[in-house]
Write a structure and sequence with these properties.
The complex is a heteropentamer. Chain C is of the alpha/beta class. Chain C has a domain at about 1-75 and about 190-240: P-loop containing nucleotide triphosphate hydrolases (Rossmann fold), CATH 3.40.50.300. Chain C has ten helices and ten strands. Chain D is an alpha/beta fold. Chain D has eleven helices and 15 strands. A seven-stranded mixed beta sheet of chain D has the order 8-7-9-10-11-14-15, with helices on both faces. Chain D has a six-stranded mixed beta sheet with strand order 2-3-1-4-5-6, with helices on both faces. Chain D is globular and about 65 Å long. Chain E is of the alpha/beta class. In chain E, the strands form two sheets. Chain E has a six-stranded mixed beta sheet with strand order 6-7-8-3-9-10, sandwiched between helices. In chain E, strands 2-1-4-5 form a four-stranded antiparallel beta sheet, covered by helices on one side. Classes of the chains: A mainly alpha, B mainly alpha, C alpha/beta, D alpha/beta, E alpha/beta. The interface of A and B includes residues 85, 90 and 262 of A. The structure holds adenosine-5'-triphosphate (ATP) (2 copies) and magnesium ion (2 copies). The site of one magnesium ion has 3 residues of chain E, from helix 1. One magnesium ion binds near residues 44, 45 and 87 of chain E.
């Protein structure tokens, strides 16, 4: 049971980070390869606070989010003006730099990692789930506010967004900070859940994994990200029996999804009553069109 | 001074490998406008093609290089047809291409691990033993071969792009795919050509890399550095990629040599960010004002 | 001789049926114009002819041969398309753009001559020869697109709203150039919003409404048609100039 | 957790079956399967007079700490194993300690040599964590003593992987001991894992002109470093630790390692290793790796504990593991009951005390045993 | 004389060696509709880009209601009440008509980020008001029945209209229209003319419009400024300008015999 619970915990933790990235990538159109860096910052802040300074979990989690957020302001200032691949590569540079800094930092044991971090037990095992629920609500509210609409406008057409009075850099910055805070929180959760953190856990593969989940769930969909986080955290576990081949399947699955359903599970739509209604209506319209076309051929 | 020269040679040797990788990657970028993160896996396969051509088939080095180039070119083209073309046909945003490329990379790397296995392999020694010494500077034989082959391949490519009609077609397609179709240039053909050339260069990079170091499924990871080199030089610019690669190779070597290799990547990445902040389009990239 | 035959062409975009059975013919040496409201399907028709859109149904023949569905082949066969939105190579210079127009040609001397002729027609382009064409003004870009089409030296030229966004003086020039194209022996299929001018220079005309040809005939006759006058020529006789 | 079905005892294993160290992970798992077959062929394990079959359940941890935590939970709570053999890396062993303690299932690590696997920063012993190998401080000390006293080397250079706990730890302990003895570490260069080009750093090492170069790295890095060092005209003796031994080392290094030496957990050609070596080779068609022997000893420890406890309740096994004292019976062919890597006596820190370290020299295509050190600690 | 809503003073923009706009000065009166015409490449769009802050001014000044906006960021200029449409339509293509306009009306909502994140009362109130206001605007502009259509799927004419609607959602004081009638036939152009007149009255706007359709320019503009090669060629009332030989020569061409 603890194992299953563990997978759910991990999913919930991943979910928090994924939601952050979803805001940044899915809604604002900025593709970060360095989010593991923000997770690392959160994880180390959380780990140090709970282990060395004996603070309670909730203090550590909040502090982790705040510190990742603060760093993101600096990084955002430097990189948010960049476009497309340049932004990706800059964030990747950031992520790797963070990892290497922790690898060289003696206070946290460098590359050997920080062990014996106090772990969630008993009732505190609920913490990741509570945090995940809060994260979902906050992310949902954000993207459905004017700030969220501004982000989407920036994603769609920057120049027009500017002409609509949207502070493009400002909106990107809000998205960046929100996503970094969530990543930082997820990092702290991870540190306390695993009890051990090492810089190499926050390498580019981790950043990629988060991005893949966002895309798999569908860009611009909070519910997609939620489902994606749970499915893709569990999938490697389900495929465990295949050992060597499971990453082959994983890679193949990514390609097949991108090629076969590029919008991801729920690209742009939400699993809310009104969202579902919209999707069904869309379906109907398409079916009607197909019938009409078939009819047109005969005549 | 000797130490300095030795480090310079070390740097050029790494730089020339980065260059072969970066140019192939940059070429594809210039046409497709996305970072082909599967490029590293194609390089890795090239190393294996070359290795098996030389060990199982007993081909000489040149034969191995041709096998690697052709094999990798084939893989790159297949990848384009199966994974990227459907996206292109849908006009998917560049994010999707990048993710697909990552999926492909994961797929290829792990297929190799699952079938051939993760253990590194060593190329037979075809260039002879021991370094070539010039004064107090030692140059590895493989390094020398690599430097020469990279230089020849890259000069040939640049001449091809700048001075042939097909080269012009590639450039035009890079600028505007639909418009070049209007000029009678077949974009599919150009794309296949570009993936073929990029793949061929990747194959050569793979075999050289394998000879210099080892052959193993994670070779592709090194291409991260060539991406950085390409960004340094200006994405999409071939001379830029070349310059960026050599500079990065030398820079890294000097950081390792005069500071410590543990700061090498840290400095490389910090410099990358600094470069992007100061000159977002790299050394040779164009930076025109957006026309509204 | 019949240059282009389009027979019962259907094209749709996902849910939207843009063309619903278009049939038309263009004879060698003619200027044929297609007029129609916004969204009638004019650009769709030209894009289908030049191979950028795959028809759901219907056939097309060029010089008696069935048209293959690849733009590059179609250009080779001698159809040249100046699209709406111009599609110039924004990052190349004006001159490089013109030279790329002659990509499929090998007759160097003739290419040089044609280049001179283009510069003669559009002195503005000569002035801007070395400028990146993406930074040209809208009108300059249109000139470049037309010039580039001349360089491809096709027999049938498809023009999609060539006067779009041009100053009145240049609109006149553009129509003069179209006539010059004809004098060079080219056949022209012209799509225009400026129906008045288009009908003025065309030999024959088709009226496209919601993806269907609703009228066709000699351009003069169409211009006199009261319904056409009402819908496409405006109450008074249109644009200044 | 319960333990066994009617007649079987489930033992867990995990380690890297994919990733950089997959070769060793696979070797471990192969050994586990081979031994379990042998135990079962012999009728099973005798627990309080009744014979039980053994079953091993193994998972891949990709050499990743998060994965390690996942699979440990899975082995304990889903598969209900009574004990776990593995992991091989300290990076994986350290984070699972609390899980083992909470669920009270003993873990015997194979090659995780970092002290923190069994003892926390504050000195608390992880009550359910054990290991079959010696530790890094010990290994570092042996290497330093050997270099200083036997080989008379005074100036050492270190080439280490900065982000690998094993390499970083071993360098630290080597340096400590070597300098305590009066030697000097004249240059220490470090690189990050995955690095393939060491020339810049090696050029620096060359300039420092050491007497010996200590390389606490893994075999494929060692092969690369050695080749590049020789290419740069570095001809000094290279000395290493238990990351070196692998069937592939010499193939990858060519003759670059000729005459070099490393510290090992056993003498591959010794009589104790012979029976298993032969059986493994017959069964899998390749040579057993160092990790095979380590996994062997770890499983022997577990089985011995079960037998002595006369119970396969995890807590009982743990209690019996505390008093493990398995002498080596050199020349004894019954490889299923004897440790191959030397006398294993579990001390108060759950590490084997007084374990022997073996010095091996590379001669042509062979790894020749030189001498052994019984620890004084 | 009252302060004009917009005044350009010696405005100059250079791109490398090319002077696209050269010492141009003119004013747009409060509540007026002015036209900006000139041959292709004369610098008209460049002037729009300068006014809206997309390009930085090389020399000269731009005064909006008497205060300089030359160094302000584009979004700040938009917030002040200056907005535009584009020569080539730039909608938020994948968003619905409603969302396009809703996004642009963001300044009408006053709630902050924290209020949004936790759905505090002001968030709900403002959002509701915003939606109502947007729907109202859509019905004024005749787009209400297409509110849920993804804007990329709109016919061209409606896309132009949506672009204007989106601009209006900002409550602008000055609206810059860059070739709004491009690609429209005479009938559609007439409708557009009427629309411009109507919105000027309804939204109390001043309008500056670039067009090559002289019908439209002559039909709606009270004042016209003519550019040629980046320099002022003429300035004045429509009839005067249209008959100015320099303008005829450089831009209109001699009257055609019908
Ligand atoms: N890429 C597309 N996707 C979906 N619908 C499209 C697309 N392109 C055109 N349409 C639709 O097809 C129909 C015909 O469009 P087309 O561009 O051919 O018209 P047109 O006659 O050229 O109009 P215009 O005068 O505006 O250029 C219109 O309803 C248009 O909305
Ligand atoms: N970013 C730029 N870089 C270089 N030159 C530019 C740039 N933007 C515009 N130009 C040049 O400035 C001149 C004026 O261009 P602009 O777009 O303002 O013309 P316009 O009056 O709007 O013409 P049109 O009616 O054809 O749209 C042109 O010659 C153009 O080539
Ligand atoms: Mg059209
Ligand atoms: Mg303009």
């Amino acid at each position: 049971m603890e194992y299953i619970l563990g997978i759910f915990e991990l999913s919930a933790i991943n979910l928090v980070a994924v939601l952050g990235l979803s805001i940044l990538t899915g809604f604002t159109g900025l593709f970060s390869f360095g989010h593991a860096g923000f997770m690392a910052i959160g994880a180390y802040v959380g780990g140090i606070l709970t282990k060395n300074l004996h603070y309670p979990f909730w203090v550590a989690i909040i502090a982790a989010g705040l510190s990742a957020g603060l760093v993101s302001i600096v990084i955002g200032r430097l990189t948010l003006k960049l476009k497309g691949d340049y932004f990706c590569i800059a964030t990747m540079g950031f992520g790797e730099a963070v990892r290497l800094i922790f690898s060289n930092m003696n206070y946290v044991n460098g590359a050997r990692g920080l062990a014996d971090i106090p772990q969630f037990k008993g009732a505190s095992l609920a913490i990741p789930f509570v945090v995940a629920v809060i994260a979902i609500v906050v992310a949902w509210n954000l993207v459905n506010s004017r700030q969220g609409r501004n982000m989407v406008a920036v994603r769609e057409e920057e120049l027009a967004a500017q002409m609509a009075g949207i502070n493009v850099l400002g909106s990107k910055m809000v998205a960046m900070i929100a996503s970094a805070v969530l990543a930082g929180v997820a990092g702290a959760l991870m540190a306390n859940f695993i009890g051990f953190i090492a810089p190499k856990s926050f390498n580019m593969t981790k950043s990629t994994e988060l991005t893949i989940i966002v895309i798999f769930g569908g860009l611009g969909s909070i519910s997609g990200s939620v489902i994606g986080a749970f499915l893709l955290t569990a999938l490697p576990e389900l495929l465990r029996a295949f050992s060597d081949w499971r990453l082959v399947f994983y890679g193949l699955a990514v390609i097949v999804i991108m090629v076969g359903r590029p919008q991801g599970l729920l690209g742009g739509s939400e699993l809310t009553p009104s969202g579902i209604r919209k999707m069904l209506a869309d379906r109907k319209a398409k079916a009607a069109f197909a019938r009409a076309k078939a009819g047109g051929r005969e005549s | 001074m000797n130490l300095f020269l030795q480090q310079l040679v070390n740097g050029l040797s790494i730089g020339s490998i980065y260059a072969l990788m970066a140019v192939g990657y940059s070429l594809v970028y210039s046409i497709m406008n996305f970072s082909n993160f599967a490029h590293g896996s194609v390089i890795m396969l090239g190393a294996y093609f070359g290795y098996y051509a030389m060990t199982l088939l007993g081909l000489p080095f040149l034969g191995g290089a041709v096998a690697a180039a052709l094999g990798s070119a084939g893989v790159a083209i297949i990848l384009e047809r199966l994974a990227y073309k459907p996206l292109r046909d849908r006009r998917a945003p560049f994010l999707y291409f990048i993710i697909t490329a990552m999926g492909a990379s994961m797929f290829i790397d792990n297929s190799v691990i699952a079938t051939i296995g993760p253990t590194p392999k060593m190329y037979p020694n075809v260039f002879g033993q021991g370094p070539i010494s010039i004064g107090h500077i030692d140059i590895g034989r493989v390094d020398l071969a690599m430097f020469i082959i990279s230089a020849v391949a890259l000069v040939a490519l640049i001449l091809f792009i700048d001075h042939t009609k097909l080269g012009k077609a590639i450039q035009a397609t890079a600028y505007n795919m639909k418009a070049s179709a209007l000029m009678g240039i077949s974009p599919s053909f150009v794309i296949i050509l570009v993936f073929g050339i990029g793949g061929g260069l990747a194959g050569i990079a793979g075999i050289l890399y394998g000879m210099k170091y080892q052959v193993f499924p994670q070779i592709g990871a090194i291409t991260l550095k060539s991406f950085i080199a390409a960004v340094f030089g200006g994405l999409g610019s071939l001379p830029g990629a070349l310059l960026g690669a050599l500079l990065l190779g030398i820079l890294e070597t000097f950081v390792s040599g005069y500071l410590s290799s543990q700061y090498r990547d840290l400095i490389a990445f910090t410099l990358l960010i600094a470069m992007l902040v100061i000159r977002p389009s790299g050394i040779m990239g164009k930076n025109a004002e957006d026309k509204a | 001789m019949s240059m282009l035959n389009v027979n019962d062409l259907h094209v749709s975009y996902g849910g939207i049926r843009a063309l619903r059975g278009v049939t038309l013919e263009v004879m060698q040496g003619e200027i044929v114009t297609i007029i129609g409201a916004n969204g009638a399907g004019k650009s769709t028709l030209l894009n289908a002819i030049s191979g950028f859109l795959r028809p759901g149904q219907g056939e097309m023949h060029f010089k008696g041969e069935k048209i293959e569905m690849k733009p590059s082949r179609i250009v080779k066969a001698g159809i040249c398309h100046v699209p709406e939105g111009r599609l110039i190579f924004a990052n190349l210079t004006v001159e490089d753009n013109l030279k790329l127009g002659a990509y499929l040609r090998t007759d160097r001397k003739k290419i040089a001559q044609d280049l001179e002729r283009v510069y003669g027609l559009f002195p503005r382009l000569r002035e801007r020869m070395k400028q990146l064409s993406g930074t040209l003004s809208g009108g300059e870009q249109q000139m470049l697109a037309m010039g580039r089409a001349l360089m491809t030296d096709g027999d049938l030229v498809l023009l999609d709203e060539p006067s779009l966004g041009l100053a009145p003086l240049l609109v006149k020039t553009v129509f003069d150039i179209i006539l010059e194209f004809r004098d060079l022996g080219k056949t022209i299929l012209l799509v225009e919003q400026n129906a008045y001018k288009a009908l003025h220079i065309a030999d024959r005309a088709y009226v496209l409404e919601q993806g269907k040809i609703v009228k066709s005939g000699a351009a003069k006759a169409i211009a006199e048609d009261p319904a056409v006058k009402e819908a496409y020529l405006g109450a008074k006789s249109t644009t200044a100039g | 957790s319960g333990g066994a079905g009617a007649n079987t005892i489930k033992i867990g294993w995990f380690g890297p079956e994919t990733g950089d160290s997959a070769l060793w992970g696979q070797a471990e798992f192969n050994t586990m399967k081979m031994m379990v077959d042998d135990y079962n062929a012999a009728g099973g394990v005798n627990v309080g007079g009744k014979k039980y079959k053994l079953e091993v359940i193994g998972y891949d941890d990709k050499g990743d700490s998060t994965e390690a935590v996942n699979v440990t939970k899975r082995l304990i709570t889903q598969d209900k194993v009574v004990a776990i053999v593995g992991p091989q890396g300290s990076g994986e062993a350290i984070p699972i300690a609390p899980i083992a303690d909470d669920n009270k299932v003993p873990v015997v690590a194979t090659t995780a040599t970092n002290p923190k696997v069994t003892v926390q920063d504050d000195g608390t012993v992880n009550s359910y964590m054990y290991r079959a190998c010696f530790t890094d401080p010990y290994q570092g000390k042996v290497a330093a003593t050997f270099a200083y006293q036997k080989l008379n080397k005074r100036k050492a250079a270190i080439v280490m992987t900065v982000d690998d706990p094993y390499s970083a730890g071993l360098s630290q302990y080597f340096k400590q001991s070597f300098e305590q003895l009066g030697g000097k570490v004249v240059e220490q260069v470090s690189f990050t894992s995955g690095e393939k080009d060491f020339r810049a750093a090696l050029t620096k090492v060359k300039a420092s002109n050491p007497d010996v170069i200590f390389m606490p790295d893994y075999y494929n890095d060692v092969a690369l470093i050695a080749r590049q060092a020789r290419d740069l005209g570095i001809n000094q003796l290279l000395l290493g630790g238990d990351g070196w031994p692998s069937d592939n080392l010499i193939q990858l290094a060519g003759n670059a390692l000729e005459g070099c030496m490393f510290i090992n957990h056993l003498d591959f050609d010794g009589a104790a290793a012979a029976p298993m070596r032969a059986e493994y080779k017959t069964k899998y068609g390749k040579n057993a790796e160092l990790n095979s022997y380590m996994a062997h000893d770890a499983l022997v420890m577990v089985v011995d504990a079960i037998q002595r406890a006369k119970s396969f309740k995890p807590a009982d096994i743990k209690a019996a593991l505390d008093t493990t004292d398995l002498p080596v019976a050199t020349g004894n062919n019954d490889y299923l009951t004897n440790p191959i890597t030397g006398h294993i006596k579990i001390g108060p820190t759950h590490d084997p005390v007084g374990k022997t370290a073996w010095l091996i020299k590379i001669v042509g295509p062979d790894m020749k045993f030189q001498e052994s050190f019984a620890a004084d600690s | 004389m009252s302060v004009p809503i917009l005044e350009l003073k010696g405005l100059t923009k250079r791109f490398g060696g090319l002077t696209a706009v050269n010492d141009v000065s003119f004013r747009v009166e409060e509540g007026g509709i002015s036209g900006l015409i000139g041959p292709n490449g004369a610098g008209k769009t460049t002037i729009f880009n300068l006014i809206t802050g997309v390009y930085k001014v090389s020399a000269g000044d731009i005064l909006y209601k008497g205060a300089s906006i030359a160094d302000k960021e584009p979004y700040k200029i938009a917030d002040l009440g200056v907005t535009r449409t584009f020569q080539n339509i730039r909608l938020f293509k994948n968003l619905t008509v409603l969302d396009n306009v809703l996004t642009a009306s963001h300044m009408s909502a006053k709630y902050g980020l924290a209020e949004a994140l936790f759905r505090l009362p002001r968030f709900r109130r403002d959002e509701k008001a915003l939606r109502e206001k947007t729907m109202e605007l859509l019905s004024i502009m005749g787009l209400a029945d297409r509110a849920e259509v993804v804007s990329n799927n709109l016919p061209y004419g409606l896309q132009r209209r949506l672009e204007i609607t989106r601009a209006l959602a900002l409550n602008p004081k000055l609206l810059l229209l860059d070739e709004p009638a491009a690609g429209m036939n005479p009938d559609e152009t007439n409708q557009l003319m009427r629309l411009i007149g109507e919105i000027r009255g309804k939204f109390k706007l001043s309008v500056l419009v670039i067009e090559h359709h002289m019908d439209l320019i002559m039909g709606v503009c009270e004042h016209i400024h003519v550019l040629n090669f980046g320099c002022t060629l003429a300035d004045g009332k429509p009839e005067t300008v249209a008959n100015d030989p320099k303008v005829v020569d450089a831009y209109l061409g001699a009257e055609e015999t019908k």
